[in-house]
Amino acid sequence: MLLCLHLVPQPVFAGTPLKLSTGEYEPFTGAQLPRGGPLVELVRRAFAESGYVVDIDFLPWKRSYGGAQDGHYDATFPYGRNAEREKDFLFSDSFFTLERRMYYRAGSAINPSDPATFTGKTYCSPVGYTLYKEFSSLVERKALNVQSAPNHASCAKMVAAARVDFFVTTPDAGELAVTKAGLTTPLAFGPFGKSENHLLVSRTHPRAQELINVFNKGILALKARGDWARIVNQHAL
Predict the structure, then answer these.
(1) pTM score of the predicted model
(2) What phi and psi, each to the nearest 5 degrees, are found at residue 126?
(3) How far apart are CA 76 and CA 87, in angstroms?
């Protein structure tokens, strides 16, 4: 009987909640959203599959990322993959794929599918957001300027006021940003690729790979039962 008990896998953090961080990314994550938004609920449920309880703090994106990097948090989410982040973090499998849109002023001659039209323009990016790979070479050559803003609603206002030329986000987040900005003239938009969203655990975390494996397993279980789709649909996405 004792041998059997030893063979039963137990959560390493049993009885001690995992500490996770995220930021405000409505309608996907947000302290004021029902159950924290769909991505927060997916993360909670994925870890719950293996008996883990998680406490999630909503922070500015830089603090969310830095807190996981220095070990104050066990993991952070949702983030896209890039080479700089891979130096410091292990990445889960993508657990949510988002279509992206580029928002710009009508008549500005910007074409989301033609990078040549970005030359000499100014791109608005919320503080703490990564630079999309499509813009990297342009920024390195100083052919594209980057202006930071508190959030996408601020970017929408700045585009409308011709202080910047465009911003990029998902359709849901973009429409919400335009609404919050109170624009009287709608912005033009066009498709601009996709974003994969991951959970990140610092490479210095003593159980980094274990947490990644637990999370990936949980997401697969939710998808297999149809719970992943039900959660997303309940949040009206």
Answers:
(1) 0.80
(2) -60, 150
(3) 15
**pLDDT tens-place string over residues 159-193:** 999 999 999 999 999 999 999 999 988 999 999 99
Domain that holds residue 176: 98-194
- Tell me, yes or no, whether 217 lies in a domain: yes
**CATH for 113:** 3.40.190.10
Q: Is residue 9 part of a domain?
A: no
CA-closest candidate to residue 173, choices 197, 145, 201: 197
208 plus 176 within the same structural domain: no
Residue from 190, 191, 119, 129 nearest 154 by CA: 129
**155, 149 in Cβ contact below 8 A?**
yes
Among left, alpha and beta (phi > 0; psi -120 to 50; other), residue 70 is alpha
Is 142:169 a contact under the CB 8 Å cutoff? no
3-state class (DSSP) for residue 97:
strand
Q: Please give the mean pLDDT across all residues of the chain.
A: 92
Scored b (16 or more CB within 10 A) or e, 77-101 reads: bbbbbeeebeeebbbbebbbebebb
Q: Is 210 helix (H, G, I), strand (E, B) or coil?
A: helix
Q: How many domains does the chain have?
A: 2
With the CA atoms of 124, 125, 131 and 133 taken in that order, what torsion angle do they form, in degrees rounded to the nearest 10? -50
> What is the DSSP annotation of 7-20?
HS---TTTTSPEEE
* Domain identity same for 183 and 102: yes
Distance (Å, whole) CA 228 – CA 49: 12
